[in-house]
Design goal:
The chain is of the alpha/beta class. About 40% of the residues lie in helices and about 15% in strands.
């Protein structure tokens, strides 16, 4: 059947707009998460920003039209419902979830503490599952679909060994495959689930790596593009997966890594 004019999707930049959408971004108090919140807000979304540091969230929310700050600690099971529930209570819906919050666990495997391993999985894998599940319940009830964007890492796709990251790589590898499974379960209902796998970007988490020239040189030596990533180079990937621009993309992991996973 031929499309009517009302069925015709928007053209050009308009397909990336998020006007009228409500987005939840975890780990939004600094670094990439803060930028993700700004990018979504500039595209028209109302953003619920979450992290542990309320003062930073409040400063960010004051700069974004209609943004809501929610202080929560995703390592605490009693806090896991707060981000999505706040979006539903205050905004009436949730259309987009960006599971960005994460912690690292860097130690040789033979020295790695079991409890620390569990802690990393709780924040990096269990929390994204709970937020995705809670958001999907709202999306399914409304029958309007939505987009869940998980932030993994190239370390969830390949082994590196240096620095040793057993817990972190396990959590991000799990997140990549969780993305596939949730996509398989929900895509027929219009809920798309995708992952961004960044390479090495400067952030609070990679502060130690980039503390001197050796870190920059190590990344450049192992990356085909011969440099680290810059935060703005994730903007397009985020908007693509969050918006209708990727309306036929689901279960996908988009590596933004300067070619790291291509060799």
């Amino acid at each position: 059947m031929a499309e009517t004019s009302s069925d015709t999707p928007p053209l050009g930049e308009a397909v990336f707009r998020l006007d009228g959408k409500v987005a939840v971004v975890t780990g939004a108090s600094s670094g990439l998460g803060e930028r993700f919140a700004r990018v979504l807000a500039l595209a028209g979304a109302r953003v619920v920003v979450t992290a542990r540091r309320l003062d930073r969230l409040e400063r960010l929310a004051a700069e974004l039209d209609g943004a809501l700050p929610v202080a929560c600690d995703l390592s605490r099971s009693e806090d896991l419902a707060l981000p999505v529930q706040t979006a539903i209570d205050e905004c009436g819906r949730v259309d987009i979830v960006v599971n960005n919050a994460g912690i690292e666990g860097s130690a040789p495997a033979v020295e790695e503490d079991e409890q620390r391993f569990r802690d990393v999985l709780e924040v990096n894998l269990v929390a994204p599952f709970v937020l995705a599940r809670d958001a999907a319940r709202d999306m399914l009830a409304r029958g309007e679909g939505g987009s869940i964007v998980n932030i993994a890492s190239v370390l969830g796709m390949v082994g590196v060994g240096r620095p040793p990251q057993g817990a972190y790589t396990a959590s991000k590898g799990g997140l990549v495959n969780l993305t596939r499974e949730l996509s398989a379960q929900w895509s027929s209902s219009g809920i798309r689930v995708n992952t961004i796998a960044p390479g090495f970007f400067e952030s609070e988490m990679t502060e130690q790596l980039f503390s001197d020239e050796r870190g920059y040189k190590w990344v450049a030596r192992h990356t085909p593009m011969r440099r680290q990533g810059h935060a703005h180079e994730l903007d397009g990937a985020l908007l693509f997966l969050a918006s209708d621009a990727s309306s036929y993309v689901t279960g996908h992991t988009l590596a933004v890594d300067g070619g790291w996973t291509s060799v």
